[in-house]
């Protein structure tokens, strides 16, 4: 069924004006008190929307306050170094978001003379800004009547309109986008988007929706047909692959560690790490580590004591990371498969931005050093 066909079924599409009125009246009284609301500053709204991608609101609130204190304007962000940006983002994950914020800030300042885009179409021309983020910024900051279709809106509208198409498919996304765009009001579009986000986050939740508290229950076809618990539908995903990975804490005679910066165009680009990599089929951990260090840095190492094992799940795969103490044997380090490298003392590690896996290795290293010092 096409979006046009679906919307032609009037019993499953609420009256747009009455739906918006009920939603906005509820929002005026029950909206969440979030630090980026109550402003029309496109910079603050843009930063908040980027941070909110794949991240819980409570966690974003903490980072947002620090970010705005350190980079209060787009000019301040554009003038900052990427290392400073990544360090401030450290722990928030999905680091391409920070890199793209930095790139886009430079575009706005250097190519647009500090002028922000005003429409969703213009926002999408900037690095890291997709359809949802562009619509959210344009509607909230500039009042453009565009629907910002995030996970919450998808779930709410799939229930309201009794959408049977799996929402995690291209067909489902197109259908729900057309439905949302048919319902978004010409006035207060930003509030309408945020109201639906709040309903999805606090009332129309994935499990055990609180229908009796919902401001649009009387407009909801799923509630009327007692279908709210089995909608929305999702297409089952394939099994997430798992990889065995190694990392080397390479020590020289001066007591320094060799750290490497990940290539800027790769996953976690620009972050620093203990060098290593993925094991090949049938390869031992020791052999993997020696090969990876040779390929990435052009040096020879001796693999020593195992320090720790870290389990970590990313969006599309998971890893088991084994970290080893290693001794630097020879060769001049080169940036062969890394963006940069440095010898640093352990007490200098906090000056760099690390992926969460390597941050756990550092924590284990320091705990082991404290234990050793207490025993001496």
Automatic annotation (TrEMBL):
It holds the Pfam family HhH-GPD. 8-oxo-dGTP binds at residues 262, 273-276. Its cofactor is Mg(2+); [4Fe-4S] cluster. Its EC number is 3.2.2.31. Residues 241-369 form the Nudix hydrolase domain. It catalyses: Hydrolyzes free adenine bases from 7,8-dihydro-8-oxoguanine:adenine mismatched double-stranded DNA, leaving an apurinic site. Keywords: 4Fe-4S, DNA damage, DNA repair, Glycosidase, Hydrolase, Iron, Iron-sulfur, Magnesium, Metal-binding. Mg(2+) binds at residues 276, 296. GO terms for biological process: base-excision repair; mismatch repair. It is an enzyme of class 3 (hydrolase). InterPro entries: A/G_AdeGlyc_MutY, DNA_glycosylase, Endonuclease-III-like_CS2, Endonuclease3_FeS-loop_motif, Endouclease-III_FeS-bd_BS, HhH-GPD_domain, HhH_base_excis_C, HhH_motif. GO terms for molecular function: 4 iron, 4 sulfur cluster binding; 8-oxo-7,8-dihydroguanine DNA N-glycosylase activity; 8-oxo-7,8-dihydroguanosine triphosphate pyrophosphatase activity; adenine/guanine mispair binding; metal ion binding; oxidized purine DNA binding; purine-specific mismatch base pair DNA N-glycosylase activity. SUPFAM superfamilies: DNA-glycosylase, Nudix. It comes from the Bacteria. Adenine glycosylase active on G-A mispairs. MutY also corrects error-prone DNA synthesis past GO lesions which are due to the oxidatively damaged form of guanine: 7,8-dihydro-8-oxoguanine (8-oxo-dGTP). Belongs to the Nth/MutY family. This is Adenine DNA glycosylase. The gene is mutY.
